[in-house]
Amino acid sequence: MKVQENQIECETLLDAGAVLEKLRRSSLYKQFHWLESVPSTQAVAKQIGEENAPHGTLVWAEYQTEGRGRRGRVWEAAKGENLIFSLLLRSSFRAEDLFWVTACLGLAVCYGLETVSGLAGMIKWPNDIFLEGKKVGGILTEARFDGSLTRYIVSGLGLNVNWNPQKDKEMPYPVTSVSREVRECIKREDLLGEILQGFERLFSFLECGNRRSIEEAWLSRFILLGKRVLVIGDGGEFECTVTGLRKDGALLIQRSNGTEEPVFAGDVSLRM
Question: 45: which of 11, 86, 127, 261 fits an S-S bond (Cβ 3.0–4.6 Å)?
Fold first, then answer.
């Protein structure tokens, strides 16, 4: 570890063996692809999904150069700093249920952060993870369909763990990393293990039809609930108040004139 002024730099590679040991009793994780460098774990997971890789295949990389977020944004990760993985799932869900896969992973990240760092992770609809009011990670869930049901699902996470925000170009919104908030380096294998174990537990609830418990837990971590926000979408931008979440994961909002409606896509930011 290097400490320079108020900056923390960590240069430790992840111990994959420690993660495998933590998951040795898992009934979900069947196959692991540990990659040193990759353009995108999401692309690799979709490729092996087409090649009949099993349910519960994990693709993890130390270095990613062409990761994607929502709305085509690029998300890069330097070697040895963050967590970058994509999980291939073969459970059959309808398109309107895919949000809840993202919700399971988001909750697992929040629980893992709390266990490893002691900090309370929060969720910003639909797929961003926040620490102390700043973005620390994001989730991207995609699917290939056979008719109305999924052939496979790929849910990917990019999480700033030991990254130093001050050494990269200025971001258009506040960002942070776990190490920056706790002022010490984080053992990424511990955090990854906690996230994967938490996701397995939550996903089992989803598969058994117990979505209500996931919804309640998600709403308890939802930083926009009851807040005044600005929504920016293809149809323009408008201010509104967030009132809840629909069963398909759409954001429920109330406009200034009292009209209530769902929001399916767009950027949502708090009005300060």
Answer: 86
